[in-house]
Amino acid sequence: MAIDIMWFKEFVAATLVFLLTRLFVRSLLLKPNRRLPPGPRGLPVIGALPLLGQMPHVALANMARKYGPIVYLKVGTCGMVVASTPDVARAFLKTLDINFSNRPPNAGATHLAYNSQDMVFADYGPKWKLLRKLSNLHMLGGKALEDSAHIRSVELGHMLRSMCEFSRRGEAVVVAEMLTFAMANMLGQVILSRRVFGTFGSESNEFKDMVVELMTSAGLFNVGDFVPSIAWMDLQGIEGGMKRLHRKFDVLITKMIDEHMKVAHERKGRPDFLDALMANRENPNGPKLSIINIKAILLNLFTAGTDTSSSSIEWALAEMLKNPSILRRAQEEMDQVVGRNRRLEESDLPKLPYLRAICKESFRLHPSTPLNLPRISTEACEVNGYYIPKNTRLSVNIWAIGRDPDVWENPLEFLPDRFLSAKNGKIDPRGNDFELIPFGSGRRICAGARLGIVLVEYILGTLVHSFEWKLPDGVVELNMDEAFGLALQKAVPLAAMVTPRLSPSAYVS
After folding, report:
1. What is the DSSP string of 326-377?
2. Which residue in 37, 84, 229, 441 could disulfide with 72, CB within 3.0 to 4.6 Å?
3. How many Cβ atoms are within 10 Å of 240's Cβ, its own excluded?
4. pLDDT (tens digit, 9 = 90+) per residue, 147-188?
5. Whether the Cβ atoms of residue 195 and residue 189 lie closer than 8 Å to each other
6. Is 28 within a domain?
């Protein structure tokens, strides 16, 4: 009997060893590699949040130099992965695009974007697809951009005449204010069939301040987004500021819609973008838009549509003022193609390779969005041998990619000629060449990428062609410091003296 018991114990032990070994081997075969990407340890509760500092894109670029092209951070209770090279960005935004097509919840989406009812923060799904489709069809697509070219020309004419008046009075032009005034009116004509601002002045400058505040606050790393249990405390005061700003924008947008509806009869047979949106409130064949959806997308267009493009133009002009030889060469190219008896037209742009190279160089060195808007993984996945858990937030450091010495020679210098070389000549900023993705890439690429490129090339070219530029008296060196936000602003707005250089008749129409 003792022998039987001993045999039974040995049999049970062997069986357990066999089963455990089988389970272990099976887990190795079935489970993905659980090795997370490297990154800093951080602090209890808040994790790596303090390490991001006031300039997160710079801090994350420094981390990438230390830990590698994929960095993993525990930020509060959330995991975040940061991609800092073209190859890794391609893996996340192209190969794994569908897995990273949603946005994580955050205070900006809740308090500014009507609880994610817009096109920027909405979940990837039928409502978002409808908003993108309507935007491309009626405003942001190739055919719609062609149809609205005359609007951009007319509004740019208004801005040029205002700048001539500043020149006549011997006053400096604050570039960002002028650009916001012109771009808001360009958008207003397409969306509402009217100008948003009748004259340049305090009203348009207040709007500019509101846009900058929105883009700045929405770009901040809010503690409550990463430690939800203490979000109600609003430790940084960010959410309170967002709520106050949202109320101001909601009053403005509600007024726009109400005034638009009152004169609907005047547009009979000539619907604008808001008419197209309103028509989908009663869509019988698919998802319907609510009035909140419509307000939210108008907020997207009037904020991101003005701020991102204006910042790219402002940075490019600042770089040219620092490098007068680049400014002169651009003017010489335009004088040869356009002459000095008329203004630049959008149809001239394909014949101006140096101007386009300047725009690409501005996108590279000063991307309007330094960190792409965050995405979140729907499922766990693997990238470059590293395990990325489900619900991990993704940031692509577009700023770091543009300054990567392994990608760009002399990356900190403003050298438009790099885009005229055989190596980089075909690189395009529309999201397929991951060395230059100022508008992001994949399904969630900026919906206004085409419009943004047209605005930057056309407006920058017109400003350079139409005026001589110099710094105000007493300003010896430009301040090129950055101010972090969703859009990368100049910390000190560019102010410059301008002098008309074309025939007087060119500024009339």
Report:
1. HHHHHHHHHHHHT-SSS---GGGGGG-HHHHHHHHHHHHHS-SSSBPPPEE-
2. 37
3. 11
4. 999 999 999 999 999 999 999 999 999 999 999 899 999 999
5. yes
6. no
Of 475, 509, 468, the closest CA to residue 495 belongs to: 475
What is the arithmetic mean of pLDDT over 11-22?
A: 46
Domain that holds residue 178: 36-507
Q: Is 19 a domain residue?
A: no
68 pLDDT more than 90: yes
Q: Which amino acid is residue 233, in one-letter code?
A: M
Give the residue among 121, 23, 46, 93 at the shortest CA–CA distance from 395: 93
Supply 392's token pair. 């991990």
Please tell me whether 446 is known to bind a ligand: yes
**Read out DSSP for 251-310?**
HHHHHHHHHHHHTGGGGTT---HHHHHHHGGG-TTSPPPPHHHHHHHHHHHHHHHHHHHH
Residue 3's pLDDT is what? 41
Whole-model pTM: value is 0.90
Amino acid at 405: P
Contacts of 129 (CB under 8 A, 6+ apart): none
CA–CA gap between residue 445 and residue 423 (Å, rounded): 25
Q: What strand order describes the sheet that includes 393-396?
A: 70-75, 78-83, 393-396, 375-376
Using the predicted structure, report yes or no on whether residue 404 has a pLDDT greater than 90. Answer: yes
Q: Provide the 3-class DSSP secondary structure of residue 224.
A: helix
3-state DSSP assignment of residue 498? strand
Q: What is the mean predicted confidence (pLDDT) over 477-495?
A: 91
Name which of 190-204, 316-330, 419-433 the model is least confident about: 190-204
CATH number at residue 178: 1.10.630.10
Q: Give the percent of the chain with pLDDT over 90.
A: 78
Per the domain annotation, does 385 fall within a domain? yes
Residues 6+ apart with CB under 8 A from 291: 257, 281
Total of domains in the chain: 1
- List residues bridging with 395 in a β-sheet: 82
- More confident of the two residues 220 and 353: 353
Q: Are 96 and 87 in contact (CB under 8 A)?
A: no
- To which residue do tokens 């405003």 refer? 139
Query: Is residue 36 a contact partner of residue 27, using CB atoms and an 8 Å limit?
Result: no
Q: Where are the alpha helices (DSSP H) in 31-148?
A: 56-67, 86-90, 107-111, 126-135, 142-147
Q: Where is average pLDDT lowest: 30-34, 89-93, 128-132, 135-139?
A: 30-34
Burial class (CB in 10 A: 0-12, 13-18, 19+), 107: buried
Q: Are 318 and 480 in contact (CB under 8 A)?
A: yes
- Is 31 inside a domain boundary? no
Q: Among all chains, which residue has been given the structure tokens 């894109």? A: 57
Which of 488, 493, 486, 489 shows the shortest CA–CA distance to 214? Answer: 486
Per-residue pLDDT at 203: 75
